[in-house]
Amino acid sequence: MLASIFVVQGAEAFAHPDPLVPRARRITDRVGPTLGNVNPDLRADARTLVKLNGAVMAAAGVLMITPLRRPAAVAVALSLVPTTLAAHSYWEHEDPAQRRQQRVQFLKNLGLLGGLLLAAGDTEGRPGLRWRTGHLISDANRSVHREARHTRSRVRAAAAGTLLGRKLSH
Fold first, then answer.
1. Alpha-carbon torsion 31, 34, 35, 36, what sign?
2. How far, in Å, CA of 16 to CA of 92, rounded?
3. What's the helix, strand, coil split of the chain in %, to 5?
4. For 104-153, how does the pLDDT look when each residue is reduced to its tens digit (9 = 90+)?
5. Which of 105, 51, 53, 43 is nearest to 75 (CA)?
6. Which of 27, 136, 13, 10 is nearest to 82 (CA)?
7. By three-state DSSP, how is residue 89 classified?
């Protein structure tokens, strides 16, 4: 259910990018040159970047129902950030009604972002990396303490044996 909005809206943005381009320019005009600096082949105009973003949303949205759901959720989350900043910058609107409407859309996207982050971290009940690491450290700590107690006992026994041996030889 979380993925449905991204599949539909992503496909729409890919198929019909032109209505989205004017609002997207505030982000694409900043990102485009940076991409071009990283790799000249990545230099793209606003329309191409809108289509690319739509394709990522749609494809990753579909992948969210497969075993690749965690990386797909990350991909959608990463594409949602520039989309939200470009389309719902409520702080730039003077009209109170429009500002309120854009704020609602911004907060909706923020909520969707939270859902995507939960989906990206979901391990389906299997212990995650954090849990496994914590238990590995805990097990190692117990093992070290157990070995230290055992060594302490052997040292005491050896010391007692040495003292007993001296007493017997005198």
1. positive
2. 25
3. 85, 0, 15
4. 999 999 999 999 999 888 877 777 677 778 888 888 889 888 998 988 88
5. 53
6. 27
7. coil
Could you tell me the two tokens for 91?
A: 């702080």
What tokens does 7 get?
């599949």
Hey, what are 18's tokens? 């032109």
- Identify the CA nearest to 85 among candidates 35, 23, 29: 23
The 3-state secondary structure of 103-132, one letter per residue: HHHHHHHHHHHHHHHHHHHCCCCCCCHHHH
CA nearest neighbour of 27 among 88, 73, 76: 88
List the structure tokens of 169.
């030889």
Q: What is the DSSP string of 20-59?
A: GHHHHHHHHHHHHHHHHHH-GGG---HHHHHHHHHHHHHH
Among 86, 102, 91, 109, which Cα is nearest to 24's?
Answer: 86
Confidence grade of residue 40 (pLDDT, cut at 50, 70, 90):
confident
What is the total residue count of the chain? 170
Q: Where are the domains of the chain?
A: 4-121, 128-170
